[in-house]
């Protein structure tokens, strides 16, 4: 890099030298060196330039003419430049220099310049770097505006600036006049502003035309490599050069089809068919595209292709694929046989035949077809996988293992094949072999989450829950952020009888993926079973947001709200569940209970009868129906329904209690006592069972057992005033006045009105000791 050189040339008086230094200091950030480079990047010559705007330098056009490259140097900057505007009649050009940190010059109009004025030329004379020379305005040419100065100029000064004593640009130093001693030409500074309007935008010369590429060979190479985006671009270029090329349009349509852009592909292929209707390559692709779009013309196009090229077996393979997609396996089999008759060496057709035979259940034929595909194309991963699965489905697991071992495919691919083999074996109830396949899949690809799920599920089926949990924990070791693995672990731990650990795993699953509805659902069940009703409610509310159309979730939400003592919210949830699924048993039972609690027994009975009709084997449905009938006073019907509930579930306490009451209301005291005693054995702390049993015993004259049940009732519910009232009467009837008096005292503390009523009743019945009871 050249440094700044201050050379004061010409008139060298001390005053001139001092003024020159001041001018130079003012303008040195506005004057640059311009270097022209040849094709080898070597400097051919140098000139000067002045900054006229941000990122723009003005110089003489002859400085940059014929240069292969131009660079601009200012202080510590060395930047590339390109011609931007050219006013060649005046020999003025503007360079674009992005990033140039130069200060644009201030200009002074030509009309204000006078002869004899001291001026200073700043430029790059002789390649020495920036220099300043002093002189005078010797003459002014008014007709062909120009400034003649005595300021010395040298080669390299062209394009530099001629400045006045205040650092204002008065001209562009342009030429040394060889015929005159120390007499040089500068162009007026006014012209700087006029370049924008007079100048012509400089454009790069056009590149020489390239030779025409081998369009077909390149397109075919891209097709074979399945480089579909590249083929789309190549075919578009090809068509722009040769708009009537049907082959180019065909390649374009095929590439667009493979990129999943069938509408665009159809347009290109129809254009190809229009250009060359007998082009046998167009019609199969057009048929495939139309099939993708669901258009009926697809079959017609395929038939047209078959008529044009009856020997092309792959056309029959296309038809076979469509028939397979439509579920017509026998027709697909026939088409494949026709395809192989025409082209017996097509490995893809053999592989498809293997798939069809596999789905038809003929595993022996499937194995042979896949073997043929592998022989023809040993590296075909699809055929190898199919062969392994067909062998496994035929029970030839060792051979399947050998095929996969010899395939030398990617472990991840083989892992997925083993996963599929395991699924096939599970479908055949070969659980032991399925487990082995899942283990093989997981050993090949420990990150295959589905394999971990499947293996854990297989272990759960055989109650090896600890092993299942270990498999899932191992998978979580490398995939701790996988919500589905945490959910599966939670399910497994729940099966192990560890609800606390199960809840922690499920909460982790929900935290990782708040959209995992299955995890929230399972979490709600665990929380419900452990008594965390608020937690169960929160989980179910999340599930209803994720699955608003799931009737069972709404029913479970209603059950929790009902259990929490929120009857109106429960009613809304049960109603929504019944709207989504009128046959949802939990919703019907919830609505039965809701209307029963509101004494709306007719409506309760209607829901109960729907439950029974839908689930005649449900003890809860029969019990609900019996209770509603009981409350409606239809005791015989109630007893019949409740007896059915007891037969279905003999230890259901509420059914037994309600049945006992139904017998009691009908006066069938023996049956009532037998039924209620059984209910008490099932639920000793049930107060209504004790009360109805006491009533039945008392009505049959068995005061001792009646008193025993009433005593137990008052211990269970000491605040139940009717129990104390009945106990008082029974004790009086047994002639146990002191005990009766004690019971009566407790009754008075709870309800003075009921106590007075009980005393009056005792007196009316003439019970001994009644008069001793305090009023």
Task: Describe how the helices and strands are arranged.
Blueprint: E1 8-10, H1 14-27, E2 31-37, E3 43-53, E4 56-60, H2 61-64, E5 69-74, E6 77-87, E7 92-96, E8 118-123, E9 131-141, E10 146-149, E11 160-163, E12 169-176, E13 184-188, H3 190-198, E14 200-201, H4 215-224, H5 228-241, H6 246-258, H7 262-275, H8 282-292, H9 297-308, H10 313-325, H11 329-342, H12 347-360, H13 363-376, H14 381-393, H15 397-407, H16 411-427, H17 431-444, H18 449-461, H19 465-478, H20 483-495, H21 499-512, H22 517-529, H23 533-546, H24 551-563, H25 567-580, H26 585-597, H27 601-614, H28 619-631, H29 635-648, H30 653-665, H31 669-682, H32 687-699, H33 703-716, H34 721-733, H35 737-750, H36 752-765
Parallel strand pairs: 1-9
Antiparallel strand pairs: 2-3, 2-5, 3-4, 4-7, 5-6, 6-7, 6-14, 8-9, 8-11, 9-10, 10-13, 11-12, 12-13
Helix pairs in contact: 4-5, 4-6, 5-6, 6-7, 6-8, 7-8, 8-9, 9-10, 10-11, 11-12, 12-13, 12-14, 13-14, 14-15, 14-16, 16-17, 17-18, 18-19, 18-20, 19-20, 20-21, 20-22, 21-22, 22-23, 23-24, 24-25, 24-26, 25-26, 26-27, 26-28, 27-28, 28-29, 28-30, 29-30, 30-31, 30-32, 31-32, 32-33, 33-34, 34-35, ...
């Amino acid at each position: 890099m050249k440094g700044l050189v201050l050379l004061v040339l010409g008139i060298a008086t001390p005053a001139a030298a001092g003024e020159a230094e001041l001018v130079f200091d003012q303008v040195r950030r506005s004057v640059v060196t311009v270097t022209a480079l040849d094709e080898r990047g070597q400097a051919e010559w140098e000139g000067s330039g002045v900054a006229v705007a941000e990122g723009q330098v003005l110089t003489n056009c002859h400085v940059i003419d014929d240069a292969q490259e131009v660079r601009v140097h200012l202080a510590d900057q060395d930047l590339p430049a390109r011609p931007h505007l050219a006013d060649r009649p005046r020999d003025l050009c503007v360079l674009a220099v992005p990033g140039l940190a130069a200060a644009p010059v201030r200009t002074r109009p030509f009309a204000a310049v006078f002869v004899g004025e001291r001026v200073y030329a700043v430029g790059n004379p002789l390649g020495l770097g920036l220099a300043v020379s002093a002189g005078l305005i010797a003459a002014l040419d008014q007709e062909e505006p120009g400034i003649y100065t005595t300021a010395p100029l040298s080669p390299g000064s062209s394009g530099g600036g001629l400045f006045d004593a205040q650092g204002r640009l008065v001209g562009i130093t342009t030429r040394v006049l060889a015929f005159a001693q120390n007499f040089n030409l500068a162009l007026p500074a006014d012209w700087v502003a006029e370049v924008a309007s007079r100048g012509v935008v400089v454009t790069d010369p056009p590149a020489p035309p390239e030779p025409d590429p081998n369009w077909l060979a390149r397109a075919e190479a891209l097709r074979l490599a399945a480089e579909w985006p590249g083929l789309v671009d190549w075919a578009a270029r090809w068509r722009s050069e040769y708009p009537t090329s049907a082959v180019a349009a065909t390649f374009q349509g095929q590439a667009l089809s493979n990129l999943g852009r069938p509408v665009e592909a159809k347009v290109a292929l129809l254009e190809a068919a229009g250009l060359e209707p007998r082009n046998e390559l167009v019609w199969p692709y057009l048929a495939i595209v139309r099939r993708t779009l669901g258009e009926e013309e697809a079959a017609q196009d395929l038939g047209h292709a078959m008529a044009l090229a009856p020997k092309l077996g792959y056309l029959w393979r296309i038809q076979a694929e469509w028939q397979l997609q439509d579920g017509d396996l026998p027709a697909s089999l026939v088409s494949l046989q026709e395809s192989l008759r025409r082209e017996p060496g097509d490995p893809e057709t053999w592989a498809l035949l293997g798939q069809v035979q596999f789905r038809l259940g003929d595993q022996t034929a499937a194995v042979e077809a896949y073997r043929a595909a592998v022989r023809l194309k040993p590296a075909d991963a699809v055929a190898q996988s199919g062969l392994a699965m067909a062998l496994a489905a035929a029970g030839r697991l060792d051979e399947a293992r050998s095929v996969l071992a010899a395939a030398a495919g990617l472990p991840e691919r083989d892992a997925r094949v083993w996963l599929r083999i395991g699924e096939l074996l599970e479908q055949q109830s070969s659980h032991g072999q399925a487990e082995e396949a899942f283990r093989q899949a997981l050993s090949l690809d420990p990150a295959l989450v589905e394999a971990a799920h499947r293996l854990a599920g297989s272990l759960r089926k055989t109650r090896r829950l600890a092993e299942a949990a270990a498999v899932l924990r191992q998978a979580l070791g490398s995939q701790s952020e996988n919500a589905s693995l945490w959910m599966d672990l939670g399910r497994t731990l729940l099966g192990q009888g560890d609800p606390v650990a199960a809840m922690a795993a499920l909460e982790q699953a929900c935290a990782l993926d708040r959209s995992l509805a299955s995890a929230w659902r399972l979490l709600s069940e665990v929380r419900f079973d452990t008594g965390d009703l608020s937690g169960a409610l929160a989980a179910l509310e999340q599930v209803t947001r994720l699955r608003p159309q799931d009737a069972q979730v709404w029913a479970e939400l209603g059950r929790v709200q009902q259990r929490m003592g929120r009857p109106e919210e429960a009613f809304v949830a049960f109603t929504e569940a019944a709207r989504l699924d009128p046959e949802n048993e939990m919703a019907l039972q919830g609505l039965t209970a809701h209307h029963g609690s509101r004494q709306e027994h007719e409506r309760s009975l209607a829901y109960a009868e729907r439950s029974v009709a839908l689930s005649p084997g449900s003890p809860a449905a029969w019990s609900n129906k019996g209770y509603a009938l009981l409350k409606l006073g239809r005791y015989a019907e109630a007893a019949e329904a409740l007896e059915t509930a007891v037969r279905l579930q003999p230890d259901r306490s509420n059914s037994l209690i309600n049945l006992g009451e139904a017998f009691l209301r009908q006066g069938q005291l023996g049956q009532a006592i037998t039924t209620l005693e059984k209910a008490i054995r099932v639920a000793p702390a049930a107060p209504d069972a004790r009360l109805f049993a006491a009533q039945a015993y008392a009505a049959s004259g068995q005061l001792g057992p009646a008193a025993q049940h009433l005593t137990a009732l008052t211990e269970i519910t000491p605040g139940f005033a009717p129990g104390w009232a009945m106990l008082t009467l029974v004790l009086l009837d047994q002639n146990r006045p002191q005990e009766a008096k004690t019971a009566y005292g407790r009754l008075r503390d709870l309800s003075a009105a009921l106590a007075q009523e009980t005393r009056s009743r005792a007196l009316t019945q003439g019970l001994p000791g009644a008069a001793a009871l305090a009023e």
